[in-house]
């Protein structure tokens, strides 16, 4: 039980931490953190470019390409190793190509160089191995490096510091020192930026230089743009030697003369209009001049100089070349009658015919021929090639497929099949010929866009599934999903828009507007949908659904009078109806002596002119006895219940003894209490003779 309890506590803590992390990422505070990171990045870039911009009076227009490489170094996931298709982190050892400035993991580029050298040198024999320093190429730009240039240590971009420390206030993989690499093309100056990725910007130094044609006075200009044109005519003499260059002041050699003139061909027979830049040209006529022999004419096409001797003069050989004759140029050389003995096309046998003109016949001798692969022999004419039907079973240089060529000599050609293996990007297949080792990285790039498509970053193919989309500064353009006409302003994003926090403002049944936040898309927990199969099954997390909730009751305070009209209190609009204030009613009853002791209640007015404080039929009826004071001397109570006005006269008889105490008299209470002294003495007298002694 204790272990289960501890497990549940840890599980709840992890769930709470995960929920808090998600809320922090979705809250506005994450945007504040991003803004702080952008401010910090801007400060680092300004620090890196400070020395350069001080030389250019603040002009940073030439730094855009370098700035792009530095922004990619800062952006999470933007720098990708094309070999392993993984992100390059700031704490990993890297290597940068000096041709394309692409960054790779040091371990990846070492393995790439080793595999490339092995593939190049594997077809060599043991005698040739190691005699030539074969290069290895960059995976992206194919720039070739020597074997000795294979990286073995981790350096910063400028190459000064080995294993640079990770500093959050520097560009990742930078040492923070001045770059001092020579500019390309070399001008004698060095880069002034702090150690940085990508190419160095153009040289910002000021130099004094003249124009291309040297006619204008020297002026101070940026070293990177020191070659300039004054736009005056060049004036240099062209190669034709007759005209001057009319183009504006330019760099390099002048263009060929564009003018047209009439020029004779080499032999001088024809004249044609041609470009002044190419005065030498040949016509299509045969020379036709008589040779020194006087019997033949020159057969060369339009040429310069003398025609030369007759080609049939002097000693000439017979067709087989064994006998030489001295004959006039008008006579043909006869055959010598000896055997030809020229080597035939087979390269083994000689021509057995007598000396003859024209080509020799094909070799027709019967020989024992071996096929090209050396497995079979056959007797056949020497001029016919012998190829057997046996297919070669050797493995080609790809080490995967057989040669399968008929009668192969053993020197199997390279594999002609397409590799077709899936590349590391998992999107494309290798288009190269079948090969050994790892395939080259996918050369394609993919655009990763934000939700609205206005912000785009270009990443290597395969990284689009893991890289975070770019942060877009455009406002979200989606239509609101609640009843409001416009939604709150927020930046472009993926997924659902954040909950609307605008006041609802729907008109309630009471006529007031709903003041709470919009509740058209509230998350409501659904509980009890899944019943566990037993006590061993862990309880699942509650599911949430998005639904529209009704407006809450109206809370606008409304002054309401209580039922008995004792007080006026502000009540919420949804419960604004007459209420009991819990006091006594307090209205004067019909007896005019007591008040209604009921709890505050509704009183019906009997007529419209009646007083609001007057007792109504709902009030209690007075059931008390009359408690008004009796006349002096009257010992009786009022015979009426509690009533308004004076009590009626007391008509009860009082039993009283006379003065002499002998008789009992019955006298009305009213007469006795209203009589004065004399009348009382008379009333109490029994009218009999007094028995008292004098």
From TrEMBL:
Lineage: Eukaryota, Metazoa, Chordata, Craniata, Vertebrata
Provenance organism: Erpornis zantholeuca
One Gene Ontology cellular component: nucleus
Protein name: NFXL1 protein
SMART domains xrefs: ZnF_NFX
Single Gene Ontology MF annotation: DNA-binding transcription factor activity, RNA polymerase II-specific
UniProt KW keywords: Metal-binding, Repeat, Zinc, Zinc-finger
Family annotation (PANTHER family): NF-X1-TYPE ZINC FINGER PROTEIN NFXL1, NUCLEAR TRANSCRIPTION FACTOR, X-BOX BINDING 1 NFX1
Family: Belongs to the NFX1 family.
InterPro entries from the UniProt entry: NFX1_fam, Znf_NFX1
Keyword Signal among UniProt keywords: no
Top-level taxon in the UniProt lineage: Eukaryota
NF-X1-type domain ranges (all copies): 187-205, 240-259, 293-312, 346-365, 373-394, 398-417, 425-444, 482-502, 591-624, 634-652
